[in-house]
Amino acid sequence: MQGTQNLKNDVQAICEQLGIDVHWYSVETCAVNWAHWKERKINVREIYNCGDYAAAFHEIGHVECDAGEKQQGVLLVLQECRAWQWAIDRRKDAFDSGAWQRIGNALDCYLRDCGIDEQKAPEQWKEIMQLVGSHSIYGVPSPGSLGRKKKKLG
Ligand SMILES: [Zn+2]
Fold first, then answer.
1. How many whole angstroms separate alpha carbon 48 and alpha carbon 39?
2. What angle is formed at CA 41 by the lines to CA 57 and CA 2, rounded to 5 degrees?
3. Predicted structure pTM score
4. Tens digit of pLDDT for each residue in 64-88?
5. Distance from the CA of 26 to the center of ligand 1, in angstroms?
């Protein structure tokens, strides 16, 4: 993808500004993204696409918004939402459809992992999901996109 170095530079610059240590790992390793709130450290995957960029901002959001260790249940969902909201508030204009999709998938996972029904999701979760819906091709394909697909196949 074009411009991933710029995206990485942006993450580096923000981390420097906020006094956060950023450690990059390559896609070949089995590492995961994490943030350490107290030590102001993040471990994030090298940026290959805009989704990685959004995910890196999400981890910075954890350092900035988490006032304590990892929560559980609905509090965990809220903690994750806050970190995404932090990222969205700052860089939503730079997010492409793939980035929004990454956010939507992550939000889905938190609810599933916590065994919470979508109807019972916290308001903040619903608000972010609405943004995901309006910014990405996430969810049910529109009749228009189905039509295009059919044409290609035929
Ligand atoms: Zn998170």
1. 26
2. 35
3. 0.86
4. 999 888 889 999 999 999 999 999 9
5. 19
In the reported structure, the alpha carbon of residue 59 is separated from the centroid of ligand 1 by a whole-number distance in angstroms of 6
- Please tell me the predicted confidence (pLDDT) of residue 139: 55
Å from CA of 39 to ligand 1 middle: 16
Structure tokens at 145: 């996109």
How many angstroms does the Cα of residue 106 sit away from the middle of ligand 1? 8
How far, in Å, from the CA of 154 to the mean position of ligand 1?
42
CA distance 20 to 36: 10
Distance 103 CA to ligand 1 centre (A): 10
Whether the Cβ atoms of residue 111 and residue 77 lie closer than 8 Å to each other: yes
Between CA 27 and CA 139 the distance in angstroms is: 27
Contacts of 37 (CB under 8 A, 6+ apart): 62, 63, 66, 67, 68, 69
Q: Quick: pLDDT tens for 79-132.
A: 999 999 999 999 999 999 999 999 999 999 999 999 999 999 999 999 999 999
34-36 sheet: strands from edge to edge = 21-25, 41-45, 34-36
